[in-house]
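Run folding on both entries below.
>entry_1
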Amino acid sequence: RERGGRFASLAELAGSAGAGRPSLERLAWAGACDELAGGDRRRALWDLGIAAPGGGLVEPGAQLALPLPLPASPDLRSLSAWERMLADYAGTGMTVAAHPLALLRPSLEEMEKPPVTSRDLATLPHRSRVRVGGLVVARQRPATANGVVFLLLEDEHGTINLIVTPPVYERFRLTVRTEPLVLAAGVLERDPAHGGATNVVVDRLTPLDAPEAPLAEVKELPREEPDRDADADAADFRAVAPAVMSFASGRRR
């Protein structure tokens, strides 16, 4: 980098970085090549597939072919904001762009009783009935809590503490234990006797579904089909959701 400066093109990246095709594909899906591809990850993936050296074609020590300009990529459908978010999580385990709840918020606002945000909870009175949605970032079931499960949700504005009592946990066990995006209904508690901490005591939990629009599956394209469209029958957020912290075990699950 000190000798040659920044990479000027995808062809230069593929020819000079010393990375193989799988690594280049991961870089493209993670958004590392967006600047070289005009922000189009599909174009980056296509061009790197053409520019990357083929495996098993060059003997050790042999001279590589001279760099050639890449042909223009076909007119590929751009990734949606949701698909880019899936690609971020699949490639790096995080996203610095839109939060999943920010992308889902327009569809949530169309519900008969839209869920409130973490920011709204600060203005609602104690014992209000609320619905909230978010990404599960932590689960805790301490041995000293008599079976109570604590969930920490994250939306586009902050975090929300959920308290799941044993009867509710037994009723919605699978959702509590496995779903990365949930919609919770319950009672807001902000008891001054407990320092004014804001919690939602949950009585109902449901999975929060991804948008119904066609989504792209984040995966490596097959070698024999380099022009395969990235549209997929299902784009399940569970496959790329960030790991959830379990405080009880001290590790991510």
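>entry_2
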Amino acid sequence: MTIRARITRPSTIAAVSVALWVFIGVATALFTLFMAAYVMRMDGSDWSPIVMPWQCWLSTILLLATSLMLHGANKAGRPLTTRKFLVMGGFFGFAFIGCQFWSWHALQANHITPMGNPAGSFFFLLTAMHGAHVLGGLVGWLRTVRFVRFGPVLDSAMFELRWRARLCTRYWDFLLAVWVVLFAALRWLTPEVVRFICGTR
């Protein structure tokens, strides 16, 4: 295995790192706005809570596994070990996407569609939006994996691989945190809970 010898300049590394933080901030604001709309929509008379498909629990495990694998890649000291962790992380990431489609199919089998009950509509909207960000993370993951090539080991670019792995880890930790919040809200947040928290009960 070999790693490309092209080394990114420190100024570029800093710029990319800041850009990722900015993107995470913007995405956080976007998800926050959609969650606020979700909470406010609960007050409608046509709101009917849905039963979360069990596949969402599996999705949580898969996303957690992805994050753990990328942390392993970030801490690995050898190129081969780093690549193994990266590949496993990507496998769990793609499995998460597949599990999300499975959960949508399970809801549709129970006659819950994006155009029906508002609670179901928000489930499809929020999980689809999160899934789109996961696909973006898989693109970044693929670029990092492609940085590693089979052949003789070249240690001159290990720093390059490590900072790429760090960026992937940071972004997937963000995806995991967002998913946990979404999952908790979709699973346990009810109009009664919202009224109790807001003091309007």
